[in-house]
Design brief:
The protein is mainly α. The protein is built from seven helices and no strands. Helix 2 packs antiparallel against helix 4, helix 2 packs parallel to helix 5 and helix 4 packs parallel to helix 7. It is elongated and about 50 Å long. The model has no long low-confidence stretch (mean pLDDT 92).
């Protein structure tokens, strides 16, 4: 686990940048549909899982399950950050991309904190599984990388 967290340092920095970016876009009232592609945490995590899977296979000699485990860890970390940012958005009463009805996939202009938490818990379950699969795909593609 410690080695996985050490490998994930660059990803954690990018996760922090993306989180702050999403927060700022929402607080400066950039429309969600226009700004969400700029700092998409889920998309970034998905791509990071693919890259980490490929690189750890070739240059760290990870086996499939270990690479998939790293992808799951990346997915859990991103979803915990999203959940925490959602809770903070509600706690301070800020309108951010983290409590946007579009992001939470809930119809209506106002979303209760209960609905938001339900949506985020679903993401906490589903997204790490998907990033684990993405990391396994990356691991499979890692065989195409050169040895050195």
């Amino acid at each position: 686990m410690a080695e996985n967290l050490k490998l994930a340092r660059l990803y954690l920095l990018l996760l922090a940048i993306a989180t702050v970016g999403r927060w700022l876009l929402g607080t400066f009232e950039v429309p969600y549909e226009k700004g969400t592609a700029t700092f998409s945490i889920v998309t970034m995590t998905f791509y990071a899982a693919i890259f980490y899977g490929a690189f750890t296979r070739r240059w760290r000699r990870f086996r499939l399950w270990r690479a998939a485990g790293l992808g799951i860890i990346l997915g859990v970390m991103s979803q915990v950050v999203i959940l925490a940012a959602t809770l903070v958005s509600y706690a301070v009463g800020a309108h951010t991309y983290f409590n946007s009805p579009v992001a939470l996939e809930v119809p209506g202009p106002d979303v209760s904190i209960g609905q938001a938490l339900l949506s985020r818990v679903a993401g906490l379950i589903v997204n790490p599984i998907l990033t684990g699969i993405a990391s396994a795909v990356g691991w499979a593609l890692g065989g195409l990388l050169p040895e050195s």
